[in-house]
Amino acid sequence: MKKTDVFQLLRNRQSQLLGYNQYKKSAVLIPLIDIDNKTHILFEVRSMTLRSQPGDICFPGGRMDATDESPKHTAIRETSEELGIEQNHVTDVIPLDYYVGEQRIIYPFIGTIKHPEQITPFSGEVAEIFTVPLDFFLTTKPKKYNVHFEVVPEENFPFDQIVGGKDYNWHVQHIEELF
C-alpha cells in the first residue's frame, strides 16, 4: 500500500472518541423547578428494587435507546418516564459538559420542569423525589473525599516484558466524591 492509498482511504474520515461504539451512553437532566419564587433542583431516590444503584440519589435519566434521536432526546424521554409528565413539560433544555469514564459516556443537561404539581413518579424506578433550593449549593461548600483504585495485575501478567518488572511504577487513579 502506498501513502496516496492511505490518504485516499482517510480523506473524508470524521474523528471520534476511540472505541466510541463500545461505550454505554446515558443522559441525565438536572431539573429546575420554581417553589415559592425560588429555584429548586429536583432529585430522585432510586427504587430499592433496581439492580443498579438501588436507593441512590440521582437526577432523572438513563441509557440511550437505539430509537433516541440524540442525548437530549434521551434526557427528556427518561425524565418524562420517571416523573410521569409529558415530554413537552420539560423545557429550556441546555447541554452541559459530558463525562467520559470507564466504558461510559454521560451526557448531562439542565432544564425546567413546567407544572411540577403534575409530577407522578414511576414507582418501578423512583422511590421518592425531593427538592433542594439552588441557593443551598451556591452557599454550601461540599465535603470532598477521594476513592483510590488499586492496580492488581492478573496472576500470569508478563512483568518481564515491562520496564521495572514487578516494581513498575503504576499510575494509580482516584475519583473525587462530593457530599
TrEMBL record:
CC cofactor: Mg(2+); Mn(2+)
GO molecular function: 8-oxo-7,8-dihydrodeoxyguanosine triphosphate pyrophosphatase activity
Domain of life where this protein originates: Bacteria
Keywords: Hydrolase, Magnesium, Manganese, Metal-binding
EC top class named in words: hydrolase
Pfam families: NUDIX
Name recorded for this polypeptide: CoA pyrophosphatase
